[in-house]
Amino acid sequence: MEWLRSNRTDWYVYMSDAVESRNLGNCSAEKTGRRVPRGDKRREEIAAIAERIFLERGFTETTMQLVAARAGASKETLYRHFGNKEELFAEIVQRRSARITGGQDGELDTNGTPREVLGRLGLNLLDFLTLADSLSFYRVMVAEAIRAPELGRICYAQGPGRVFGELARYLGRAARRGELRCPEPELAAKLFLGAIVANYQILGLLAPGFEPFKRKKMRAHVEEAVEMFLDRYGPSP
C-alpha cells in the first residue's frame, strides 16, 4: 500500500508539472536555447519567479504559498522540487553564482590559459555585481542576515564562497601543472577577487548612478587586475 500511495503521488505531481508548465513561457532554459527535461524546465521556471519575489519582498516576507500562487503551481509541485523555503533560496543563489563562473553546473570555465580564464571570470564577476538586480539582492541579503544568520551562511556558501572555492581549486591545479607559482591558492584567490571587485560594488550599493558602470572601463580594470596577479603568481621565466 505504501508503494501504491507513493506512485500515485508521483503521478499526480508529474501531471501537475505538465499542466502548470503551460502557464509560463519565459523561462531561463528558453532564453538560453538549452533543451532540458520537463521537470528541470519547470524547476527553473519556479526558481526564476521565486527570485523576483525575494527581491520584491525579502526572504522573511516571501512564503512558499506566495511562490506557488505566483508560479501557478500546486503546493505538491513546489515542495517536490524544493523541500522548503531555505532550499529554494539556496538554489537561487547557486544559479546566480553559476552566471559568474561560466561553466557547466556552476563549475569554473577553465578553457584557455590562466590569463584567459582569469580575464573571463573577472569580467563575468564585475558585470554581474554591477547589475541593478544583483545590488538589490545583496541589499536584501545583508538586511536579512542580521535577523537570520543561517540565511547569510547559505547565501555565502552558495554564492561568493562557491566562486571563491572554484577559483582556489583552479589555481591549485594550474600551479601543479607549472602554469602558475601559487603555493597558497586560497590566499591568491582572495587577492584576485578583491582586486576585481575593488570599489565597484560598494559604489553601486551606496551611490547608485554616481559613476556609470561602463563596460570599456570595467574591461580595462579586469585586464589590469589580471596583469597584476600574473606579475606576482605567473610562472618563472
In short:
Helix content is 75%, strand content 0%. The chain has helices at 2-20, 28-32, 38-61, 64-71, 75-81, 85-101, 114-129, 132-147, 149-158, 160-176, 185-197, 200-206, 215-233.
Describe this structure in words.
With 237 residues, the chain is mainly α. It folds into two domains: 83 residues, Orthogonal Bundle (Arc Repressor Mutant, subunit A), CATH 1.10.10.60; 152 residues, Tetracycline Repressor, domain 2, CATH 1.10.357. Helix content is 75%, strand content 0%. The longest helix has 24 residues. The N terminus is likely disordered.
Q: Which helices and strands appear, and what pairs or packs with what?
A:
Elements: H1 2-20, H2 28-32, H3 38-61, H4 64-71, H5 75-81, H6 85-101, H7 114-129, H8 132-147, H9 149-158, H10 160-176, H11 185-197, H12 200-206, H13 215-233
Helix pairs in contact: 3-4, 3-6, 3-8, 6-9, 6-10, 7-13, 8-9, 9-10, 10-11, 11-13
